[in-house]
Amino acid sequence: MQRLKDLKLSEFKPKPMLVTDVHIPDRARFPVIDAHNHLFGDPEPSEVVKEMDEAGVEIFINLTGNTKFTFTEEGYRVAKRDIDFFIKRYSERYPGRFYCFTMSVFADMSGEILIKSDDFADLAVEELEQDIKKGAVGLKITKELGLKFRDYKNQMIAIDDSRLDPIWAKAAQLDIPVLIHTSDPAAFFQPLDEHNEHYQTLRLAPEWSFYNSYFSKEELLSQRNRVIERHRKTRFICAHVGGYSENLKYVARFLDDHPNAFIDIAARIDELGRQPYTARDFLIRYQNRVLFGTDMPAKREVYRSYYRFLETKDEYFDYPDYVGRFGYSRWRIYGLYLPRSVLKKIYYKNALKIIKGLSI
Q1: Among residues 87, 117, 120, which one has the least CA distance to residue 106?
Q2: Which domains does the chain have, with CATH numbers?
Q3: Which of 28, 45, 119, 303 gets the highest tally of CB atoms within 10 A of its CB?
Q4: How far apart are CA 117 and CA 67, in angstroms?
Q5: Which pLDDT value is given to residue 323?
Q6: pLDDT at position 111, please?
Q7: Based on C-alpha coordinates, what's the Rg of the chain?
Q8: Is residue 101 within 8 Å of residue 61, measured between CB atoms?
Q9: End-to-end Cα separation, the chain, in angstroms
């Protein structure tokens, strides 16, 4: 009899013996707009376009257009710069293929103090207007709002801080969407113990743990919702399945109550794919409110994994982890085989409707 050795949790990587069909689409059934992504580390434009062409992606939207966005083992780093760099390097070289959002002054992430003076909103609005004139098509707000950013009095800035209201109002006036990332997976707000389903992830990326954060996950979402309620003329894209992909009943109520809100599926097929019946019903019901996005490097194998998830009936398969950092899926997922009419809307039609200035 073979003697069993004790394994560390990180060493346990079972190979499923389940025999299932495999259908990996080379290209999506319809044109694709990747409405939630970043150009990690300024890759060569021709290389990105090659990957896009191989996977059938017509448009790539870089949400962090006025920054250099780099993912490292210590987390991601953001260095603020002029949006002209993105426009010249990507948009002008490949017209119609690359668009961007601006982070405006929210991109100044060199320290925790964001609101350095009482004229913060005026500065943000001024830079937002300038970047939109240069070619940006939306405003991106990172999860640091509510989790990290403080004002000059060292007070944590709530998402619904009234000092920010002129920024959301200006987005409506400019007819641009605000893509806002609020909170993170629910387990990121739980204790790091044997019950945490993301324990392996958080052990390797402890900076992603928000246990005992100043605002709870529930309060962060409530703050965001109050902003959306106050600014009904502004279109809000709530990233990562509205910030609560583990609880689609909550997201459904949120969408029902906030007609000016939309969601994307970026970096959350792991959550959707382990609840395939509920996720399929949800995406069909809210097919007019969902955008396609990956939030991962523009690689054909990443896109094909998303197509497999959305289009096929494949069972119990691996999904791409975040930027290849962990190398092993926490669990496996199932395909949703969505109807063709729903796929068209998620892949590109909704993005064309919500983000002005795009065309394919």
Answers
A1: 120
A2: 29-354 (3.20.20.140)
A3: 303
A4: 22
A5: 42
A6: 73
A7: 20
A8: yes
A9: 63
